[in-house]
């Protein structure tokens, strides 16, 4: 048995300046909720043996739907719902990138600014190359390593220590994985630094949860009505009992054990990279905003910087492949050419037994996400999420044949 929520209230707030996707959604036929949830069912039944619990949501023109399957925890009989909390892993980076884009649009920072300008001098900012810019960090061209460059990330107990690790890494042979701007190397640590630097710059301080999260709540999630989206420590500080009652539980290792504690290390400093929890109903709001179907005037104006400004995109895994690019956190994959060209925007996430994926077709009102409390091997969450968006029906109920998004993991 599954839970279905269709046409969630508050998802489609009107824009003052409609995007191309919003204009495309304002008229013409649209598929039924029943047809959309049948597409969800087909994907779930194809992969259900690998899945503990899963919630899937989509927007197809003016139709929205969420459906949940499975269990909230191993050994539990409780099924997830649209209010269940899943850790969304690196989809958190898209919120950090949106905060950066907003502050750039407002003139508070510039993408060309050196990162060292936003790290206190006492924390070794002078050892961070001046050539390392905010754009380098946001597009994973920083040269900083994937994870926090310390022996044990749980030993980090202050924002000063978190920042100082960047300077020590830059002055330690073998620690940087490349020169700033040189190549795409995915880095959770760089995104954590970016988020906390923005929070500090905007006047927030660390406490029970991070400076970045306070900044992100004030400027991104609260304005979009995403009241379920917070880090584990943020939930603990504001509604600990509600967090424990609503969160899904994931397992790691063999024999399977619950991932504990439910935080992305080192908390709270890396939350800007992968530490957020969210619900399917909030992810539907995030999908709607990211596609250009809803938002606030300020956030709407900043959105094009994320994936729709060519000069801000960089090569991804293969520098010579123009079809695989990276924007500010978002992956950009293009297939075909001319009138048959399709560009899909996506972001996967994985953290401590949870996995997720969000994908949508650029400038079209078509997108989907999946949230799981497992990390399947074949396909992975990006494969499942892409299967969902490709299975969404046409307005007449049949499968679409003019668009296929590639798997971008």
Any chance you could write out the topology, listing elements then pairs?
Blueprint (H helix, E strand, L loop, with lengths): L2 E4 L13 H5 L8 H15 L5 E8 L2 E8 L15 E2 L4 H14 L28 H5 L20 H12 L17 H14 L9 H11 L8 E2 H15 L4 E2 L4 E2 L12 H4 L1 E3 L1 H12 L5 H6 L1 H4 L6 E2 L8 E3 L4 E5 L6 E10 L2 E8 L4 E7 L8 H11 L18
Antiparallel strand pairs: 1-3, 2-3, 2-14, 4-8, 5-8, 6-7, 9-10, 10-11, 11-12, 12-13, 13-14
Helix pairs in contact: 2-13, 3-6, 3-7, 6-7
Protein model, in words:
By secondary structure, the protein is of the alpha+beta class. Helix content is about 30%, strand content about 15%. It has helices at about 20-25, 35-45, 90-105, 135-140, 160-170, 190-200, 210-220, 230-245, 270-275, 280-290, 295-300, 305, 380-390, and strands at about 5, 55-60, 65-70, 85, 230, 250, 255-260, 275-280, 315, 325, 330-335, 340-350, 355-360, 365-370. The strands form three sheets. It has a nine-stranded antiparallel beta sheet with strand order 1-3-2-14-13-12-11-10-9, sandwiched between helices. β13 and β14 (about 365-370) form a beta hairpin. α3 packs across α6, α3 packs across α7 (about 210-220) and α6 (about 190-200) packs across α7 (about 210-220). The longest helix has 15 residues, at about 35-45. The protein is globular, with a radius of gyration of 20 Å.
User: How many alpha or pi helices?
Assistant: 13
* Uncertain residue segments: 6-17
Mean pLDDT across residues: 91
Amino- and carboxy-terminal Cα gap: 30 Å
Order of helices and strands: EHHEEEHHHHHEHEEHEHHHEEEEEEH
Q: What is the helix content?
A: 25-40%
Oligomeric state of shown chains: single chain
Round the Cα radius of gyration to an integer and report it: 20 Å
Decide which structural class fits the backbone. Answer: alpha+beta
Strand order of the largest sheet: 1-3-2-14-13-12-11-10-9
Task: Give a quick account of the main beta sheet: strands, pairing sense, barrel closure.
Answer: 9 strands, antiparallel
Number of strands: 14
Residues in β-strands, percent:
15-25%
- What gross morphology would you assign? globular
